[in-house]
Amino acid sequence: xxxxANEAAYDLWAEDYPPLPHNALMRAExxxxxxxxxxxxxxxxxxLACGSGRYGLLLQERGARFVVGCDLSAGMLARxxxxxxxxxxxxxxxxxxxxxxxxxxxxxxxxxPSLDAWMAEAARVLAGxxxxxxxxxxxxxxxxxxxxxxxxxxxxxxxxxxALHDPKAHLAAAWRAGLVLEARREVRVGQELxxxxxxxxxxxxxxxxxxxxxxxxxxxx
Length: 221
Ligand SMILES: C[S@@+](CC[C@H](N)C(=O)[O-])C[C@H]1O[C@@H](n2cnc3c(N)ncnc32)[C@H](O)[C@@H]1O
Prior knowledge:
Layout: H1 6-13, H2 24-35, E1 44-48, H3 54-61, E2 66-71, H4 74-79, E3 84-87, E4 100-105, H5 115-125, E5 126-137, H6 139-143, E6 149-151, E7 157-159, H7 167-176, E8 180-188, H8 200-207, E9 211-219
Parallel strand pairs: 1-2, 1-4, 2-3, 4-5
Antiparallel strand pairs: 5-9, 6-7, 8-9
Helix pairs in contact: 5-7
The protein binds S-adenosylmethionine.
């Protein structure tokens, strides 16, 4: 197992990271995110830590006025089929305050060393009356022993570093950033995550009921 820094690891993973949900967990996470997505028609949207542009593309298809994809990995950004792509750290964004009517972020906040810094930046670039919709790997999954890893083209496995943020920590950081909880969902094994895949029988038997993803929609008054 390698211990590459996340940026280098994601550059490597980018080759094999299409802009669509490419496993059962991502499909369940995306369904939960879309269930909380406000109407995006005519909005200025930011896909924060966009990877290869999965959510940015969905926002474009749903009629956003423009979509900016932002990520630290040049390899990921190169794959993202978005008109506006910016390489930046998600906790230090190069955008003016109130630049966006919607900020969306899929499965990335766990890579921010400080949840407060991440939340404050997302809140700063949101316009008043706008929402932040995002997902995180659930800390219960990490505590139960699930890891975030991938295998590269040469067969080498890489584990990604990420912080555990409890739901209470998300809500406290949101409150400090001036954001208000609008809606919350969890993806649980055997419930929202229930599709059949190779090895799914033992997967569901082992992890049944475990929360694997947290999804929040926060509002900036
Ligand atoms: C699990 S991927 C999710 C990608 C995309 N949001 C999706 O849901 O398909 C996490 C992404 O976060 C990005 N990332 C990690 N740390 C970052 C940082 N400090 N600033 C910006 N992007 C970061 C990675 O490069 C990677 O593209």
